[in-house]
Amino acid sequence: MDSAFRVGVDVGSTTIKIVILDERNSIVFQQYLRHFSNITSTLKTMIDTAHAAMPKKLLSVMFTGSAGIGLSKCMDVSFVQEVVACTQAVREIIPYTDTVIELGGEDAKITYFGDTVEQRMNGVCAGGTGAFIDHMAVLLSTGAAGLNDLAKQYQTIYPIASRCGVFAKTDVQALMNEGVCKEDIAASVLQAVVNQTIGSLAQGRPIRGKVALLGGPLYFLSELRRRFIETLGLQADEVISPESSPYFVAIGAALSSREKPILSECLYEHIPGICVLRGTAADGERTLPLFADQEDVKRFQARHAQHAVPKQELSSYTGKAYLGIDAGSTTTKLALIDAGDKLLYFYYGSNRGNPLETVIEALQELYKVLPTGVQIAGSVVTGYGERLIQAALQVDAGEVETVAHLKAANYFLPGVTFVLDIGGQDMKSFFVRDGVIDSIMLNEACSAGCGSFIETFAQSLGMTVRDFSLQALEAPHPVELGTRCTVFMNSKVKQAQKEGASIGEISAGLAIAVVQNALFKVIRLKNTEQLGEKIVVQGGTFYNDAILRAMETIIGREVVRPDIAGIMGAYGAALLARERCQDQARSTLLTAA
After folding, report:
1. Can you give the CATH number for the domain in which 119 is found?
2. Which domain holds residue 106?
3. pLDDT tens-digit readout, 14-26
4. Are 446 and 432 in contact (CB under 8 A)?
5. What is the model's pTM?
């Protein structure tokens, strides 16, 4: 019988790598496949291929990788942590390395070698990884390889937010709208990956000496390597890019294997264990339904229908009116009210990256329908563009957006203790004590607690957000997604699909995840009692009844969602305008004339 060969199996977040080493540690078999979240069947296929190549061989098997530990238990084989495996391979194959930069599907690592080994790895954010590149490539109607080819012809690098896939998507779409060529956008995406890796992992520590660039993305994408090399100022003799780069962790696992060898045919005895994993994951990662039955849904919707602002037809109104303008980071909202706080008119639209121009257009639309008997007696602007809009259009006053939002929240629920506003890409919340804002929390580098991910996923299914959210209301077993980065969550969703989860169960799971991310990942609540008893939720995301229900379920109490949840900043600004300008006859706001 031949001496034992050593097998390393690296089961990553997006790919599986298998390497078989002979007694001289030479590679005699290697395979690299994307599993597209179908890990079990992909692994089985790869084991079949390996067995065909190595029949009647003694094999000592070791698993590694972010998704490898569960499989190793099911197959009753050993597991080694991927950091240890990669370090083992580096010391064996490229021992002169000073620093390793390794990118995977959803992970990024920098390892410093010296007297001691120091490794830094991304945690809750997958911005700047292989999956991030895949997402950005879709926006350019290509794949990762196509994005790489485009980047070869670039002329200009533009800044793109690499810290979050959703924020980056906004930057890419803005560049496309401005007519920037795809070649420049592709190179800018790759540069964003470099910036994220160096900025978030190295954190100022120099990357010097011999630098090894490992992992699938850095092996297959030549322009990504180029961006790292140019950014770090590396010379040709300082760059290590081995042919076995995508397999390094698998090689390290094989080198670490010291288990009692088994015949290659005996691997088949362990394969049934893989199938057990599929059923266990599917059954163990579901939660209770959002609603017990259709009657429960109707009671819920009837209760929230009560929180409606009084309205008045603008065409039949005469007298003073007060205007609130909310110039947000991505949208513009207007609210016009009468002296009794009834809503006469509202506007909601994207600002297309130019808040001043959008506000002017919105005002022009208002002036077209404004009756001659209506005088705008006061105006207040709030939001990101507050100072610009106030100065350019001579708005009577400006106000910090949290104050405007609190004003509107208090209108619907006097004595409010907590306000949560979730938009497409931003989230803000504030705690209120004795009628005064006590503390404010904003998402800065992560959009995991926001609604854009649900919108994107619904669009990928050819559905509207409304239709997608309605599916969640009757889902029997929502998928458990947890508090995760949107890139990580996307992989979890794909895995759930492979396990047979329905669209409704995924929709409900995403709704729960949005709330969990907002409360526990962004706000970092220790317990829900901190929120108090009077809670107002707002922002366009809360028009989704599944998210609203998830909020009430998670915190264990009822909340108020106004029927104008998407324009609360503008409505609050209008209320402030009515208070501050009630003694004046006409606003200083520029008119159509």
Report:
1. 3.30.420.40
2. 93-249
3. 789 999 998 889 9
4. no
5. 0.66
